[in-house]
């Protein structure tokens, strides 16, 4: 019940809706540029994860290979570093208030996802 409440509050006040829209737009752009479709799939994964982050986590896919690692390096250079930086800045800003601390922690949880999204999968936490 607490996870559901935190997710609803995150969606409304913690920028979950805005993040999901941003990642969704990035995914549409990646799908339009056919070569970047794998990055579009990763952006959709990030949109889903940023929409409802409490009670979920990222784990490495067991079948992720060298191609996903190389694509992660490209992602890091092109988009990952500024996405991670924006999550860090938002997390610090949200941690300034006591009420915003859970939202700041959720933003910090999104930093590794923004840096290395390929070869990862979103799973429910027990």
From TrEMBL:
Coiled-coil region: none
A Pfam family: YccF
Domain named Inner membrane component: residues: 5-56, 71-120
Name of this chain's protein: YccF domain-containing protein
NCBIfam families noted in UniProt: PRK11770.1-2
Superkingdom to which the source organism belongs: Bacteria
Species: Micromonospora cathayae
Segments passing through the bilayer: 20-44, 64-82, 88-108
Keyword annotations: Membrane, Transmembrane, Transmembrane helix
